[in-house]
Sequence to fold (544 residues):
Amino acid sequence: MAPALVWLTALMVVPCALVLALAFFRRGIYGGIDYTFTLENFGLVFDPLYAGIFLKSARIAGTATLIAVVIGYAAAYAIAAAPRRWQPVFLFFAVLPFWSNYLIRTYAWIVLLNREGLITQLLRWFGYTGEPPSMLYTEGAVIAGLVYNYLPFVILACYAPLSRLNPELAEASRDLGASAATTFRRVILPLTLPGIAAGAVFVFVLSIGNFVTPALLGGGRFQMIGNLVYDQFLTANDWPFGAALAMALIAIMLLVLMAQAMVANRAAGRAAQAAGGTDG
Amino acid sequence: MAERPPATRRALWLVLGLVFAFLYIPIAVLVALSFNEGGLPTAWSGFSLKWYASLANNSAILSAALNTLIVALISTAVATLLGTLLAIGVEMRRQYGKGLEALIFAPMIIPDIVLAIALLSFFSMLNLTMGLHTIILAHVVFNLAFVCSVVRARLKSFDWSIVEASADLGASALTTFRRVTLPVIAPAVIAGALLAFTLSVDEFIIAFFTAGAGRASTTLPMQIYAMIRFGITPEINALATIVMAVSITALTLSQRLNRGMIGQ
Fold:
């Protein structure tokens, strides 16, 4: 196991530590690195211009997460309610697109949304004669792309607790006079919350740091944090600032993961309680 | 759905239908267009394989495909070896700190862009000339973590007392590994390798940052990205169809070898 650990240390831990260190240095006059200590780069992260991009990224990632969770949960619920022998088949086909190339799945949306794309063609076919709607290179297109790319994971994450749900719990709730909506809200939803949280964290973390989807579906000028980091390293040549941005991204990610761990812990307690309740 | 009222049952089937339409229509459109003579989404002008033929004559795509194959094969081989040994080492010991667990888990969750810029900074600080070899070094990082997690899942149910028994009966460590441990974990090792291969073939961001300048080390995803940025060309539809077919085949195979992984 030693070679693997050496590999991970040399090519992940050390480079990441290096980026962390870079964030505390100054940018050199000709784009290099000036090795004097500074906190400027982190200050710049909170500059209204860049803070705005962080907020916009969080808003886009949040919207994509919400939509993916609603659709993904509904899909997982329907799969868990399907006849037993069909469930693995449905699940397999729900996850299959996830294993095809990310760029290609994103490109598929360019084909659908561009001015002469499939959706415009469909509108024409239904008798629409006006200007083709501009759907590509909008925030909506970016959100659609993110939802499309990460939906399979939400389905997978929500299916696990839904399929393990003891049907007697819902039955008991109904027998005690609760409506279907109350049963869902008070019994099913709390018990499946860890799955929702896992799926939501996955979509949010991968969306907020995404750079391919905004670049392809948002257009050349569209910027999220990932694009900003990319620019600092490959075009603006301000590596220290790029490193500070990346560290801010990691910090957001860790916060979200911690929140998820809290939800999972609390739900584990609740599940233990519910299990105790049915036994008695 | 059996014991639910018919209205609910219909609603659930409708949800399934809509979700699968959402997931598959975009891909289906791409595949269909790749066989469209005219190549444009505006009109179907007849079935044709000419876009596949033109791919075969596109030297930029062919050399990118070759680069991808080189990167994927070497990084998969190295990662499979290292990842499997890591999995055995960790599982045999049973006692491991949270730090080790985090180290193995990190490559799977760290944002691609962060690992990409970290490796770019690292390689340029070492004054390393970047090319296919640096992409391979980078790909092994996440590939070995995925191989390790697949093999570890298999080892969870492994009875280590048979390893002891083998040693007691006089087998060397190597013989024990070859005749006892390996046969048990082989399906997981192959599944992990197929997963790593697919991840490497599809990986774009880290390759993009660690490839260095020049066309010589362009991989297929980098080539696809460059083509997509220029807009829709019918050749991409054909290329996309082939790439999807390859990765879906490899992963279906991987899943079959490692049944049960999908539901966990």
